[in-house]
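Pasting two entries for a bug report.
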Amino acid sequence: MSWKTVTAVFLCISACSGQFTPDWPSLDSRPLPTWYDEAKVGVFMHWGPYSVPGVASEWFWYQWNRRDPANPGDMEIVKYMEDFYPPNFKYQQFGSQFSAEFFNATFWAELVAASGAKYFVFTSKHHDGFNNWPSKRNFGWNSHDIGPKRDVVGELANAFRADNKVVFGLYHSLFEWYHPLYLEDKANNYTTRNFVEEKMGPELMELVTKYEPEVLWSDGDWEANPEYWDTLKFLSWLYSESPVKDKIVTNDRWGRGILCKHGDFFTCSDRYNPGVLQKHKWENAMTIDKSSWGYRRNMKLSDIYSMEELISELAITVSCGGNLLMNVGPNRDGIIDTIFEERLRSMGDWLDVNGEAIYSSKPWTHQNDTLNGNVWYTSKLSSSDGEVVYAILLVWPEGGKLELGGPTPGKDTRVTMLGWKEEDLQWEGSAGPVSMAVELPNKGEVGSQWGWVIKMVKLENGGNSIWK
């Protein structure tokens, strides 16, 4: 059965069953599965043959071919290949060197859980077309046929589900830079769709039905419109008939013109963090190595997000209604660099203390404090405390007194600090710009090294008037 026939069948099934039909009004009406908004934190991993040279970025092959003298990354790659590889070396030869000899799916699952992340996204296929699973549509350029000689996606899916702490998801690139069928369709100005019908479409359905990811992170869409990619028909099937129809979430990268307009959650751009409340659920997909999604052997410590910076990203993102998806790139052997492991475990330690202010939270009336720019707010409804507001302090105030302009305290207001004794903090209210001044405890007695959280109950303006 061809991809065209398959999509037609699913189109009929979906329409006849009265579920989500292949049009944006119907698809956009699908409620966001609640688990995703509650999760708040995820881990992303980019891993493939580009991890072998480990230079510049995961766009290694494309940049090597482009050779733009004005692009430092292109020139870094060209020089690296001229210095260390023979003139006739091909990118595909990195496939056999993608050894993965120390890849341990169980360890990866345990590390991601230790980071405090609630979901995981792994690159099943990047733009180079290399599949990390034995696809029926990709012979000789996948992790089962060369390199690891393993079904990497399958091992990870099994490990994460066995650990049962983190939701398993997959990234998938729609286009492939140099696939002959794609280049043919592109040369025909996308009036033909041979790549979609014979390669990409069946492969994507195989990925979903075989591994049942609960996040499908699409990418590589921007060169063609949604009609070329068969986006509407595929999403109609995904939401109505697929084995993950009730729990899967997808992003907004499904064709030119879709970004930041349609999808369960918006990404809008790489490393998107608008700093203001958004009307639609969104995600800040960012890289702990500030320069690359893939592994770089020559990264410097200064290229890596500090814990202070990571906590700031998390606080701002969640305060404004987003999720934080932190990316690390394993090396060719399957080892996650020590600095990445340290950052992930430190984030987990922070969330062990302060996760109450993050998980299942909602944006408050104020995101950033009106007086103190280093304070960001979240809120939630507690069965024991009613409306609760959390203030995340990115900088410890001099003198230990926190002055705020957002909260309006009342006579019954109580203030505590997460990670400190279960004792109330002393505060004073005022009708001026400083609506509340809180006396903080000794910094050394608090269970956080970065980003401290105070919890406020029974504020006069504690109710959430933004998101219900």
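Entry 2 (this is the one that rendered wrong in the viewer):
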Amino acid sequence: NQARGLFKMSNPWSTGLFDCFSDISSCVCVYFCPSCSYGQIVSILNTGQPGGACGDCGSCCVFCLLGYFGFVVSCGTRTQIRNKYGLREEPCSDCLVHFLCLACALCQDFREVKKQNGLMGAAAAPEVEEMSR
């Protein structure tokens, strides 16, 4: 049973921490609005969909209100991502990654949840359908 748990958490991340430019849409979103990016990460993690421009609105607002201290909540989300997809805790602890390199960590988290939910290459926000006449 313990060996199975070790195997489950041994999957590598699909991209590295510093591969920010491997998904330009995530990179731009994190750069210009990290709180919206965080809201989308939470939304994709919980529902499999980005959920609009701000994703999970509550998460977006909390992250925004915390300012630089947003890493306090985002590191817990990284742990949820790792647990859900069986990913390794690398290159160091989740909180340390988010504290030392928040933008890179958010980009990696964003890429991972998009990949795991089949959204890689998709725009950050869902498309709006046109109404027929």
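Dev reply: Rendering is fixed now. As a check, the viewer should reflect this: Residues 75 and 95 are 5 Å apart (CA to CA).
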